[in-house]
Design goal:
Structural class: alpha/beta
Radius of gyration: 26 Å
Distance between the termini: 51 Å
Number of strands: 20
Strand order of the largest sheet: 2-1-20-19-18
Number of helices: 13
Shape: globular
Helix content: 25-40%
Length: 482
């Protein structure tokens, strides 16, 4: 009798469970089809002012967010530093230039952790040193990365990048890095076919990085195909380039991560000192120690405001910038990526309704990063309610119709122009396609959404079309209905 009663109770409960499942997937009818294909999906969409949930698919499920991790960096950095904060890079010395402009000691570059320090900034720094009267440094040029660097690698791409690399996104990290931790060379055709191409540094008339030139100049309209790899040989970086370039082709710029960002800064700065007519007596060195307390400032340059840095970090999903910003959140010297991730986790722990989160890096390159769709929307909601910070935060996201990422230009005009988002992509060890952001409904209401899609061992391939097309359709329905 008891068994029969229990069986009847379960039968009565089944329709309710089915109804709950349908309600939970409501609003993501198209996106939910990915779950039937074996993908792990977490999604949520809510209106912000009313709190009405428009759709959800297992919103609490812990999944890899890939580069959607960068919204945590952006939010935490705005909270800590404010939109107008600028990172400062300095040239200091314990010596004082004499009447002839001779500095009888070391010239120290104090890396300030500017994630967007460029050659142009270094050139301005050198010009200010020249204006301060320095014409010769009897000692060394010392690059100090005492805040952090070299930072231990946590991912296969970055660990392998020390010895050789064929991309720029795996750049290693330092508080004294320049040009996003990557070398740049310009490839131009020779005057006549059959000759080697002309290859020069993008940042100096004199060579900064060694070049192994295997690029051949071909006749007009032959096409340009370049292959480039940066390798470490005998303790120094070498850019190895091969392929072909047409005689009527425009110069091409090629970027590859350096093996040591601080040493890259040292050689770049050395070349600029020489171009400015400031000679060095004893070469360059890289140290992890803080400049002496008695060292005084000879020249300084401030970077762009944080709100400008975030625009570049999120729009271009710049891994170097994101991880450097996360490292800047660590208050003690010699910061590690784990400490940067811990600072982000501590920030997320203060967000109401966020739930569990695991962040091993700010870039999202670390496949161990985990959060939930509900966690992402909770973070987005928090920033929406910060009127002094929200304009800078939302400006760093991109609208599909106007953003720099062309693969986003899909879906209806509603999706193209009513949504602001950040995407995330990983292909190893499993495929990840993640999205999070804001939308505006037809009546002008603000909403937040997040969709995290992870592959498994049995679903090894996942393209953006598979995720963006159904997501765009589902969001369009929500936007038009409200």
């Amino acid at each position: 009798m008891f068994r029969r009663s229990l069986y009847c109770a379960l039968l009565a409960l089944l329709p309710l469970l089915a109804e709950a499942h349908v309600a939970e997937s409501h609003g993501f009818a198209r996106l939910s089809e990915l779950t039937e294909q074996g993908f792990l999906v977490g999604a949520e969409a809510r209106l912000l002012d009313s709190g009405e949930r428009l759709g959800a698919i297992e919103p609490e499920r812990q999944l890899s967010p890939a580069s959607v991790s960068k919204v945590y960096v952006a939010a935490a950095a705005l909270e800590r530093f404010g939109p107008q904060h600028r990172f400062t890079s300095r040239l200091v010395s314990t010596a004082t230039p004499d009447a002839e402009g001779v500095l009888a000691g070391d010239l120290i570059f104090d890396g300030g952790g500017d994630p967007a320090l460029t050659s142009e900034d270094l050139w301005r720094l050198v010009q200010r040193l020249h204006q301060a009267g320095v014409r010769r440094v009897d000692g060394r040029l010392v690059v100090s990365q005492w805040r952090y660097g070299p930072v231990e690698c946590l991912t296969t791409d970055r660990c392998q990048a020390h010895s050789r690399v064929a991309n720029a996104y795996s750049a290693l990290l330092s508080s004294a890095g320049v040009n996003f931790g990557s070398w740049c060379v310009a490839v131009a055709p020779a005057a006549t076919p059959g000759q080697p191409a002309r290859i020069h540094s993008c940042d100096s008339r004199s060579p900064i990085v060694e070049i192994d030139n295997r690029v051949e100049t071909r006749p007009d309209d032959s096409g340009t195909e370049l292959n480039a790899e940066r390798v470490l040989r005998d303790g120094g970086d070498v850019m190895v380039l091969s392929g072909q370039i047409s005689t009527n082709a425009l110069p091409r710029q090629v970027y590859r991560a350096s093996s040591d960002p601080a040493r890259q800064t040292a050689h770049t700065l050395q070349a600029m000192l020489e171009q400015a007519g400031i000679t060095l007596g004893e070469g360059v060195a890289v140290v992890a120690s803080e400049p002496p307390a008695e060292a005084r400032r000879l020249a300084a340059v401030e970077g762009e405001p944080l709100q400008e840095l975030l625009l570049r970090t999120l729009n271009y999903s710049n891994n170097f910038m994101a991880d450097v910003l996360a490292l800047n959140l660590v208050e003690t010297p010699r910061a590690s990526l784990e400490q940067g991730g811990a600072a982000l986790e501590a920030f997320a722990a203060e967000i109401p309704g966020h739930g569990p989160v695991t962040l091993r890096s700010g870039s999202g390159l670390t496949p161990e990063n985990r959060t939930s769709a509900a966690g992402v929307t909770a973070l987005l909601e928090r920033m929406y309610h910060r009127p002094a910070l929200f304009p800078s935060f939302v400006a760093a996201l991109q609208s599909p119709g106007n953003g720099v990422m062309r693969f986003l230009r899909r879906g209806s005009p509603t999706f193209q122009h009513h949504v602001m988002l950040k995407t995330g992509t990983l292909n190893q060890p499993v495929a990840v396609r993640a999205v999070g952001g804001y939308f505006r409904t037809r009546s002008g209401q603000w909403g937040v959404f997040s969709a995290l899609v992870n592959g498994t061992a049995t679903t090894p391939w996942l393209g953006w079309r598979q995720v963006l097309d159904p997501l765009a359709a589902d969001l369009e329905t929500m936007i038009d209905a409200h």
